[in-house]
Write a structure and sequence with these properties.
This protein is of the alpha+beta class. Helix content is about 50%, strand content about 15%. The chain has a five-stranded mixed beta sheet, sandwiched between helices. Strand 2 and strand 3 form a beta hairpin. The longest helix is centred in the N-terminal third of the chain and has 31 residues. The C terminus is likely disordered.
Length: about 220
């Protein structure tokens, strides 16, 4: 009996040490998948969660791009630009809620996947556009800009994966930005004419004008 107690006692520090190591690893993994400025998922973390959500036919893919962001940095400083990005991320995360996912893909570009059980995505995205246009800091109302939004219903393109749906949302976002429309849905009419459907050099740019126009 004493031998059994001795063996168990000696094993406890090892078990505790391993448990602590597992917790540390989980924290490191969680940190690696979060953007340090905004707290949103990075591209990797976003992709994992978003891909799972796309199994739902009610899923909506949204892409957001801050308008005139470089001018904000140049005119008001990088701290003001960071505050604007943080406010945009917080508002987008609030819109998405716990049932969806939002991520910062890089720079001033954000993405989200939400579920739309009631078919009200268009109205909600219009409201989100208005919220995102508010000043990041009420004490500095001059530090403000708009955010262009492009979105697509996954059910409209059931054979497409996340990367393809993001490409369509991005084409719609670029059309909204160029047309100063604020928001635009992919799958409704011909999008703004571009050479590749995306800004030159952006990841996932389409290589033929037919597929860009066929996003309708």
């Amino acid at each position: 009996m004493n031998t059994l107690f001795t063996t168990l006692a000696s094993a406890l520090p090892v078990a505790a040490g391993w448990s602590g190591h597992v917790v540390w690893l989980r924290r490191r993994l969680h940190t690696a998948r979060r953007d340090p400025l905004t707290g949103l998922f990075t591209r990797e973390g976003f992709t994992r969660r978003a891909t799972a959500l796309l199994r739902e036919e009610r899923a909506v893919v949204l892409l957001a791009d801050v308008d005139h962001f470089k001018q904000i940095n140049d005119r008001h400083g990088h701290a003001a630009g960071d505050a604007l990005l943080k406010a945009t991320a917080d508002r987008l995360a609030h819109y998405v809620g716990p049932a969806g996912v939002a991520g910062r893909l890089g720079g001033d570009e954000f993405a989200a996947v939400v579920l739309d059980p009631h078919g009200t995505a268009e109205d909600l995205i219009a409201a989100l556009h208005a919220v995102l246009a508010r000043p990041a800091d009420p004490a500095r109302p001059e530090v403000r800009t708009t955010v262009s939004l492009g979105w697509v219903r996954a059910a409209d393109f059931p054979r497409e994966k996340l990367a393809e749906l993001l490409g369509r949302a991005d084409e719609a976002m670029y059309a909204a930005k160029q047309g100063r429309a604020g928001t635009k849905r992919a799958g409704l009419g011909r999008l703004f004419a571009t050479v590749a459907g995306r800004r030159s050099g952006r990841r996932g740019a389409r290589t033929d004008t037919t597929s860009a126009g066929a996003a309708a």
